[in-house]
Write a structure and sequence with these properties.
globular; about 40% helix; 5 helices; alpha+beta; 3-stranded antiparallel β-sheet; two-stranded antiparallel ribbon
């Protein structure tokens, strides 16, 4: 009996969910609302676990109660969490240059302003919500 060679496994590609950033509105220095991220996108890893949902609920209920050390800890946890969830992006930095991705890192996300960080959080949190079509009775 001859040993059969096992077929070579193909590398597994991770599924991602691409979120268009045209909807993000920012307040400019002159007080106007602008879609500064129009045409840009973020790809999140598609696997959303039950633990991810619990973590999102915890972040959604963040409260500092004046404790800056607690806020710093929560901020660091949020940045670390998002760095694990972002697969790639096409975001430009403040100077119009591409941000140093697709390899997400805590350092890169930690350098974002709070408005961008919260936009990333809200986009990812939105992926965990059932779509109206999926939740409506047929």
């Amino acid at each position: 009996m001859s040993a059969q060679a096992r077929p070579k496994a193909r590398p597994r590609r991770r599924r991602v969910i691409r979120v268009n950033c045209d909807h993000l509105q920012y307040t400019t220095e002159d007080g106007e609302q602008a879609a500064l991220r129009a045409g840009q996108w973020v790809e999140f890893r598609a696997r959303i676990t039950a633990m991810d949902n619990l973590t999102l609920m915890e972040f959604g209920g963040m409260s500092t109660d004046g404790d800056t050390a607690a806020l710093a800890g929560q901020f660091a946890e949020l940045v670390t969490f998002l760095a694990q969830k972002i697969a790639a992006w096409s975001w430009l930095d403040i100077d119009g240059d591409y941000a140093p991705m697709p390899e997400p890192s805590v350092e890169v996300l930690g350098d974002l302003d709070m408005e961008d960080l919260m936009a990333l959080f809200e986009m990812y949190a939105g992926l965990t919500q059932p779509s109206p079509k999926a939740s409506s009775p047929s």
